[in-house]
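Fill in residues.
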């Protein structure tokens, strides 16, 4: 565990925003994972030495936000009083996901009169609004995962009593990525996200979706189909949430035992098959430093497109984006 002095020296912006009292209080979260199977995201970021990359990334994001006057200090501090750890994580996702355009825009303070979008950036002299959404695992999936963690803790305690001389303790936990036994729920959540009333007065609108909290989620889910030698054809869940057509077959993959494919049928059209005020969706994934899978994917609304000069600017900002992005400039005519 990092000590407080190390945190203060390595992450001065986070230290300034959070404050010494808050940083000190996070140490009490050390036992929270065992007790409640949940934990304040800032505990993992600041106190776990193996989380260095995430810590440095967030420090840089907060520093950039302040240097570019993209967010008020008061708003950065406001989330500290939030008792819902998921809300804190979603706020962290907003800051990290929108950091590529900090030099071109700013967050609108939620205390302003009237409802406001999350972020406004000036691109080629035109204001473009961004709404950021974090896609999280379903609540019952999280409860199931947390129960598995608690069960493992109990098993380890029982094993220690039965093996006072020590040895090797192992446990196997099964976790369904995306809550894949509820794929339609994930698709519906994405497909039914409507633009909020606060963005209706702006001509160009971008939906930004963060999948950083989703275990096993990467940009391959944005392809219509992928395949590998283990589970054969696998349909990209995120792709079909945007571009799927009612009646499309969804391949959920084979089992490891080589049983028949699990196949589902899409019940309704994807988000951008329907009328939508959003011109574009930028999807953000958590990637390792040396990972070849790109962290940003662009999905264009072909029925309500954004001018190509704005798209090019956004592609330059949100780099690296994947070349299999669904952009009109990559579509053969």
């Amino acid at each position: 565990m990092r000590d407080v002095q190390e945190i203060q020296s390595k992450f001065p912006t986070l230290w300034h925003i959070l404050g010494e009292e808050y940083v000190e209080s996070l140490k009490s979260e050390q036992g929270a994972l065992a007790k409640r199977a949940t934990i304040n995201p800032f505990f993992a970021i600041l106190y776990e030495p193996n989380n260095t990359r995430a810590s440095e990334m967030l420090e840089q994001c907060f520093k950039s936000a302040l240097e570019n006057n993209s967010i008020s200090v008061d708003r950065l501090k406001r989330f500290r009083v939030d008792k819902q750890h998921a809300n804190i994580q979603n706020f962290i996702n907003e800051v990290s996901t929108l950091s590529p355009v900090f030099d071109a825009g700013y967050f609108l303070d939620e205390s302003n009169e009237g409802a406001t979008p999350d972020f406004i950036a000036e691109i080629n002299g035109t204001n473009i609004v961004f709404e950021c959404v974090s896609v999280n695992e379903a609540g019952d999936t999280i409860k199931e995962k947390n129960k598995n963690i608690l069960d493992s803790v109990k098993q380890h305690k029982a094993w220690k009593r039965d093996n006072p001389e020590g040895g090797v303790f192992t446990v196997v936990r099964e976790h369904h990525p995306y809550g894949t036994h509820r794929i339609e729920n994930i698709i519906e959540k994405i497909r039914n996200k409507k633009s909020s009333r606060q963005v209706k007065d702006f001509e160009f609108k971008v939906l930004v979706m963060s999948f950083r909290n989703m275990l096993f989620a990467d940009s391959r889910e944005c392809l219509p189909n992928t395949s590998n030698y283990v589970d054969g054809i696998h349909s990209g869940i995120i792709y079909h949430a945007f571009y799927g057509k009612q009646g499309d077959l969804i391949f959920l993959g084979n089992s490891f035992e080589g049983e028949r494919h699990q196949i589902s049928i899409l019940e309704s059209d994807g988000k951008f098959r329907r009328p939508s005020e959003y011109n574009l969706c930028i999807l953000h994934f958590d990637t390792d430093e040396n990972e070849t899978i790109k962290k940003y994917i662009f999905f264009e609304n072909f029925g309500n497109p954004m001018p190509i000069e704005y798209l090019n600017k956004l592609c330059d900002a949100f780099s690296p984006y994947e070349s299999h992005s669904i952009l009109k400039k990559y579509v053969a005519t």
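The beta strands are 105-107, 119-123, 126-134, 204-210, 225-228, 232-235, 249-251, 263-265, 280-284, 296-300.
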